[in-house]
Amino acid sequence: MAVSRRNVLLLGGLGVAGAALGVPTTAVNAKSASALADSLMPRPFRTEFAQAPVLAADDPLGRPTIDPVDGKPIKYYTVTEQAASAQILPKAGLLTPILGYNGIFPGPTIDVYQGTKVELTVVNKLPRQHALDGHSLDTSTHLHGSASLPQYDGYASDITRPGFQKTYKYPNFQGGRTLWYHDHGVHHTALNAYSGLAGQYHMHDANSERLLPRGKYDVALTVSDAMFAANGALGYDDNSRSGLWGDVILVNGRPWPVMKVQKRVYRFRFLNCCISRSFRPRLSTGDPLVMVATDGGLMPTAQPVREYRHAGAERYEFLVDFSKYRTGQRIELQNLSNDNNVDYDFTNKIMAFDVVDEPVDTSDPTWNRIPTALVGSEVMDLQESQSTRRRHFRVKRDDSTWTIDGETWADVIASNYRKVMAEVELGATEIWEFENSSGGWFHPMHIHLIDFKIIGRNGRAPFAYEKGPKDTVYVGEGETVRLLMKFGPHKGRYMVHCHNLVHEDHDMMAQYQVGESADPDPNDPMTADPAVPAGTSSTTPSPSPSASPTPSVSPSATSSPSVSPSPSPSASPSPSMSPSPSPTPTKKSGKKSQTKGPRAGR
Ligand code: C2O
Ligand code: CU
C-alpha cells in the first residue's frame, strides 16, 4: 500500500534529529535507522566485494559509427529503468525492491575512451508511481561530469515518462575522468536516486592509462547509505527535508564488503552516491590515500592525505599501496564522519581489504608506482587575473525551503524556464563564491557544464586533496568557497544546485545561462529533443548496414576486464517488472548521544 507523501514527511518530522530544523549542529550517534529485526541486519565485512558489470555497446544497426561532421567514432548504448529486487540483505531470499538501470544497483558501468562519442538511450519502464510516496516516476538522466548540450544534460524538468525513452548524446571530448549517471527527475531526484537510479561512467584517456593502474586494478567504488524497513524494503526518512542518513553503508550495492587485494598499488574511483551523507575516509593503518584525480580528472600533482572530506556526488580517485602489508592482513577503509551527519553503530566503516599472496605482475610498471607529478588541465591552469567578474551566492534555508540566493527551481518553472541566476558570456572566466553562513548544515554545490578550480575556502587555500578539476564543492558549515571557471564550450541554460538531493528537491536549484539567449533556442533543454514513446527508433537506420564497421579504439577503451563479463554482485536475481512492494518508512526511536565535536584538519 502506498504511503502518502504527507505521511512520509510526517515520519520525517519525527526523525533521529527531531529538532524543528532537522539535524543538529554536530554529528549524532544513534543505534539504528532501520526497522528491520537485528538478526536480519547486515554487518560489516561479511560479504564479498564486487563491481557493477560493464555495459556492452549496442549493435549500431545501420546507424553511423563515425560522425560525418567531425570524423569522431560513435558508440550506442541502451539502459532500461526498471523496478527489480536486489539481494542486499544477508538472508537469502529476503530481497529489497529497487529501481535500477537494467534493474541493478549500481547501474552498469559505461566504459569509454576519450574522443568516442556516446548515444545513450534511456528507456523508462518504471511503474507509473513510486511505491513509497506515489509520485510519478518521470525521470531525467544526467551524466554528471559531462559538458553535454542542454537538451542532453538531464535538465530536471525535461522528463521522460514511464513508457517513453530519450536518447542522450555525450560528446566525451573532455579529459579522462570518473563520471556518473543518475536520475535528476524534477522534485523527486532524492527518492529516485536513493531507490537505485545511479551508475558510474568511466572515460579513459592516454594520460590516466599511462600513469595509473588499469584493468582489474582500476576499481569503482560507488558508496551509498541505506536504511531498511521491517520487510527488507528500503526505508526513507528525510528528517524534515534535511537529509537521509542510513545505518547501512553499501559499496557497489553490497553492505561493507571485503575485497581481496594483491600486494601492489590499486586505483580506486570513489563516488559518494549518498543522497545526503558525507564521509571522512581513512585507512585503518593510518597510511595515506594518495589522491590522483578529482571530479574532472587528473590533478596536476598527487596529494597524499590521511583523511579527507567527501560529500555526495564528489569523485575522488586515490591510490593505495598494498605492497607493504603482509599476507592475511586486513586493512579497513573507515569513515570518521563530519559535522551534521547522523552516525550509527557501523557507519564508521566503509569496506575492508584482505591482502592475499597472489603473484604480482611486476612487468606492469604501475604495480608499485606512486606518481607525484601528474598532468595539468585547462581549468587548473586558469589564473585569478583572467577573471572578468565575481559573483556571490548565499545558500540558505528559508522556512522549509532551501534556496540559492533566495531562488528555487519553482521560480524557474514559474518563469517558463527563463529565469536565470547569472548570465555569463561564452568563453568568459569568472569567480563564483558560495557562502554558507549557517553552522547547521553543509551543502555540496554542483555547477553543470563546466569544471572549476577551487581557489579559496574562507580566505585560505583549498584543501590539498581539492587541488584538481572539480564540478562539486563541499561548502561546509560557516564556509565561503571561491571557484574559478571558464564558461563553455556550449551556450545554453544549465542547472546549479545542492547535491544533498533532499535539499535539491526542496528546492535548492537554479540555472544560469551561457551566451546570449536565442529565441527560439536550438538547444532549448525542454524542447530541442524531447522524449519519445518507448520503442521508437532514435535514428533512422541507414539502408546500408555495411557502413558500420566498429571503429577501432585503443584496447584500453574496453579495459577493466575484471568487471566486464562477470555477473553483477547484488545484481538483482530477476529484474522483474513487477511493481515493487511498498517500503515502509519507519524508524526506531533511536537512542542518540552527542559524540562528535567540530573536526580538526580544516
Ligand atoms: Cu549529479 Cu545536477 O547532478
Ligand atoms: Cu544543501
TrEMBL record:
Pfam families: Cu-oxidase_2, Cu-oxidase_3. Residues 515-602 are annotated as: Disordered. SUPFAM superfamilies: Cupredoxins. It comes from the Bacteria. Residues 86-206, 414-516 form the Plastocyanin-like domain. Belongs to the multicopper oxidase family. Residues 530-541, 549-563 have a biased composition (Low complexity). It comes from Kocuria rosea subsp. polaris. This is Bilirubin oxidase. Residues 564-584 have a biased composition (Pro residues). Residues 588-602 have a biased composition (Basic residues). InterPro entries: Cu-oxidase-like_N, Cu-oxidase_C, Cu-oxidase_fam, Cupredoxin, TAT_signal. GO terms for molecular function: copper ion binding; oxidoreductase activity.
